[in-house]
Write a structure and sequence with these properties.
four-stranded antiparallel β-sheet, 1 helix, globular, 44% strand, mainly beta
């Protein structure tokens, strides 16, 4: 990853970077799609419009039945556990520490609402346009104004409540730990305990008319035929934890649980039959827009859909891998490579819009990656593995490293010269493009985790116990430097011969301005392990680490600002193609992108009976829009295409497309959340064809 070729960045680039600010909504998921976070709940107001919520404040919105999802900003990292809508416009999401968000525009924007509690709210249910109930901890909250305000009700229990459901405005049930069932027949003024016949935790409840179903741990199912007054045991056929239940009507219902479990009833819950879900990920939420059309959501952003009442399910979310990803590098603005566990290599040619797995020649974990140019690169990993590519990562061949040590980091300064470091102080160097790798004396037995060369002769390696080694003669000699820490250092990055940053355990950040001779600690503000660092100039840098940590500096590390975490994943490395486009990889297949609002150009020929015969730019839809819109255009032949946005003064705002594209129908989505309301112009230029459309952003 530590490719010296990308270090030199001019003043104009630095100035462009300085105008940017990173925020939670800037980081977008490229794998899994639409998110890698756990989705806890989902609600569809009709077969097309739906909202899913989950960990770290995740809110996703779809208007096409779940085929595509758009993240909506919340400004919180509190997890959201429940969502419910009163109508197509008004909805409420609830979550950690009493979090309540409310929308009145169909889920496009969400405003925080005071709940009056700090309990984790785990479920919310609306019985009509105004009346709703939320539960969590020992709290029960009630709203009579569509979620604009909430008043506490007396739950009468010391057990945590996890789910709530109402049959009508008066009759409802809330369930929770230790087999707790509370029931009201007066709209929640009084809640009384019911005998469940179990001490298992109850996680889900659904009440339709007189039929009630509650479910929970160890496959527990209890059924009521008198509106929740009495309960009988129903056999689930499993000991798997059941997370949620929805009775679609008095006959048909669906239960979801761990290991991708889906159970279905067609006789009011008397019997339940397992269904093929197509996933082994835990499922947490379920919603049906009509008796046939439903969606389920779960871990790793899993989204499933049924159109036949739950008899069969289709996966709508997209996952290339859930394996651990360790490093990322780009050979040009569009072509990137990721390496990780099991010898995995992923590659993109469209700036991460899609990633495909490449064939490699090893099963060893690959920990590091570096490219000398757009064709030649090396990857290093376990068991002394070194792989070489000469075609930009399309194909890989093994090289003899001369070592069986774990190789943790590799760097190339040109097509011939590279250095790799690893366990027990291993350092090996090639000057012949990897035909041979020669051992060097490091003078340490500490595991070396990171290495960076600013030239073929000047380099720095870091590792266990705060080890920092420096060479000025291509590794013929390595000199230890005082780091001032005993924490493991995981990565190091230099922007020139003098200025470098090393990061490590317990929030360690070190900075040198004299070529590594002296290192000074910087205040990171976190105690998490910091695993990767990347700088674009002396002032602007990004550090990533465990527990989804992302830190940014705009003043050389004098101040480090922690971003709202986009993921709980361990984030291993960051890479910036240019100041406006960055990428982060990590555990559970995490690939995040920081972009300029451009979403991939999609080939949209499906459903078109014939190829286009002329250049066409259609009017964007929607228009006016807030904050995103989609442009569709057609090409009669393969051509260089530029689709750009200009303001009223004719100043370029952004290039959405600037690349050759094949003949066919294409579309590109523009997210303008960072721009002011007003009139803009979209111009498509290709092979002498130019077409401009007026577009309006209304906020």
């Amino acid at each position: 990853m530590k490719n010296v070729m990308i270090v030199m960045i001019g003043l104009a680039t630095a100035l462009m970077w300085s105008t940017m600010s990173h925020s939670q909504q800037d980081w977008n998921w490229q794998n899994p799609i639409p998110t890698g976070n756990i989705l806890r709940s989902v609600f569809f107001t009709d077969v097309n419009a739906g909202t899913a919520v989950g960990d770290l404040g995740t809110i996703l919105r779809t208007t096409d039945g779940g085929n595509t999802w758009t993240p909506r900003p919340t400004g919180t990292t509190n997890s959201l556990y429940g969502v419910s809508f009163t109508d197509v416009n008004t909805g409420v999401a609830v979550g950690e520490a009493g979090t309540v968000f409310r929308t009145t525009d169909g889920g496009e924007t969400w405003d925080s609402v005071s709940s009056g509690t700090t309990f984790h709210l785990t479920s919310v249910f609306f019985i009509d346009a105004n009346n709703g109930t939320a539960v969590g901890g020992t709290a029960i909250l009630r709203t009579t104004d569509a979620g604009a305000s909430w008043a506490p009700q007396t739950s009468g229990t010391s057990n945590s409540l996890l789910s709530v459901s109402f049959a009508d405005a008066m009759t409802g049930i809330a369930v929770g730990l230790s087999g707790t069932i509370r029931r009201t027949t007066n709209g929640g003024e009084i809640w009384t305990g019911q005998t469940s016949g179990t001490t298992s935790g109850l996680r889900g409840a659904s009440l339709v008319g007189s039929i009630g179903i509650v479910i929970g741990e160890a496959g527990t199912i209890r059924r009521s035929t008198d509106g929740g007054a009495t309960w009988t045991t129903v056999t689930s056929g499993t000991l798997t934890t059941l997370n949620n239940v929805l009775m679609i009507d008095s006959s048909n219902g669906v239960i979801v649980g761990l290991n991708g479990l889906i159970l279905r009833t067609t006789n009011g819950g008397e019997t339940w039959a397992p269904q093929v879900s197509g996933t082994s990920n835990p499922l947490h939420g379920i919603s049906f827009a009509d008796p046939g059309t439903g969606n389920a959501v779960g871990s790793l952003g899993t989204i499933l859909r049924t159109t036949n009442g739950g008899s069969s399910w289709t996966t709508l979310s997209n996952v290339v891998t859930t394996g651990f990803l360790n490093d990322i590098s780009f050979t040009d603005n569009n072509t990137g490579i990721v390496v990780g566990g099991g010898g995995r290599v992923l590659r993109t040619t469209n700036r991460g819009s899609t990633w495909t797995e490449q064939t490699t020649v090893t099963a060893h974990t690959l920990y590091s990656l570096s490219f000398a140019d757009d064709g030649i690169g090396n990857a290093a990993g376990g068991g002394g593995t070194i792989l070489r590519t000469t075609d930009g990562g399309v194909s890989w061949s093994g090289q003899t490293s001369g070592s069986t040590s774990t190789l943790n980091a590799i760097t190339l300064t040109d097509a011939s010269t590279g250095t790799v470091v690893g366990s027990a102080g291993t350092i090996r160097r090639t000057t012949d493009g990897g035909v041979s790798w020669v051992g060097q004396t490091s003078g340490t037995t500490s595991d070396l985790q990171g290495v960076f060369f600013v030239s073929p002769t000047i380099g720095t390696a870091v590792g266990g116990g705060g080890t920092i080694l420096q060479t000025t003669n291509g590794g013929a000699n390595w000199t230890p430097k005082t780091s001032g820490t005993t924490n493991t250092l995981w990565d190091v990055f230099f922007i020139d011969e003098n200025t470098g940053t090393a990061v490590g355990d317990a929030g360690t950040i070190l900075r040198t301005t004299n070529g590594g001779n002296n290192w000074a600690g910087q205040l990171s503000g976190v105690s998490f392990g910091l695993l990767g660092v990347f700088f674009t100039d002396a002032n602007h840098g990004t550090v990533v680490g465990t527990n989804g940590t992302i830190l940014n500096t705009t003043n050389g590390g004098v101040d480090w600002v922690s971003e709202l975490r986009p993921a709980y994943s361990t984030l291993t490395h960051a890479y910036f193609v240019d100041p406006g486009n960055g990428f982060i990889v990590g555990s559970s297949g995490t690939i995040l992108s920081l972009g300029d609002g451009t979403t991939s150009v999609h080939d949209d020929q499906a459903g078109n009976d014939s190829a286009p015969t002329q250049f066409v730019l259609e009017q964007n839809y929607p228009n006016p829009f807030n904050p995103a819109t989609t442009f569709r255009f057609s090409l009669p032949e393969r051509a260089d295409v530029e689709l750009a946005i200009y303001d009223l003064n004719g100043q370029l705002v952004i290039r959405l497309v600037n690349e050759p594209l094949p003949a066919g129908f294409h579309e590109v989505r523009w997210d303008a959340h960072g721009l002011a309301s007003g009139v803009y112009f979209a111009r498509l230029s290709s092979e002498g064809f130019t077409r401009t459309h007026r577009v309006t952003l209304l906020k």
